Amino acid sequence: MKNGLEDVIAAETQLSDVDGAAGRLVIRGVSLDHLVGDARYEDAAVLLLDGLMEQPLSEEDLRRRLGQARAEIFAHVAAIDDGLLRLPPVDIMRALVARLSDAADFASALRLLAAPAVFLPAILRRKKGCEPLAPTPSLSQSADILAMLDGRRPSAEKVRALDAYLVTISDHGLNASTFASRVIASTGAGLTSSVLGAIGALKGPLHGGAPGPVLDMLDAIATQGNAKPWLADALDRGERLMGFGHRIYRVRDPRADALKSALKPLIEAGEVDRGRVELAKAVEQAALAILKERKPDRPLDVNVEFYTALLLEALGFPRDAFTGVFAIGRTVGWIAHAREQALEGRLIRPRSVYVGPMPKAA
Known about the structure:
This protein is mostly helical. It contains 16 helices and three strands. The chain is globular, with a radius of gyration of 21 Å.
């Protein structure tokens, strides 16, 4: 038995390959470093979904139909009431997604891709006491998300940064939420059920809920000179350093470098607090040094969460919404895996080993 299914192969996939030893992520035959430089969200969606739907896909057609789907989805924003607003953003998003029909065709997939992109900005505006803003179908997915968030046409630098994030986290092997999506799809349930199950897995702090605490750590450290003693004290207390270490990667997470690069245009455009960035760099250097000293036999390097936190903060998302933004990007991967599993037509049904008491002899 493998606790946590460590190293157990549970599926064959053409969607993504995570090489933890080499620190490499390949999505549909394209390495992340090549993909994230030029690709927009729509490009990644076409790459992942092509061949898995009932019709051929093009970036232009997907962008047009995705814009229309955002406009249709906006009607569900009216369901955000005071009771829902007491919940965390990702829980409200999940409740709204549950309103969608549970089919498996391309139209349903488009609505599910559009839904978190529309719902999260509306939720955040309602939590601030503002009215939600309707989508603009002619905009790209990333541009529309940012426009619905604050009502202004976003800069090209911000749109590129959000595209880079959504592309970077679009798929990542058989992680917990993706596995949940495949298990549900294997039963014959529709795409909405698969996405809902995946959101439920994603919201756990061991999966998609960690970028916010990276900012809490930076706030607590406050100054570059305080980085080393603060980190040493945290390790002395047995605490985990947020943004460092990964279950799969034994070297640096390639997504961390992709997002660090995506921050540079924002810094040059004055869209990011340079002091915040310099503090983060100092914390990164100090953390890597102290982790190497304290845990020489356990490779711990920067993971995707560290620069995710800085990038999403710069784009105007509050830290309690970071998991929701993650869901916007990862939904396309969940749908692709759900379709791949459904087309295989095999129910996922592992066995368990019973370790409880046996019935007493009569």
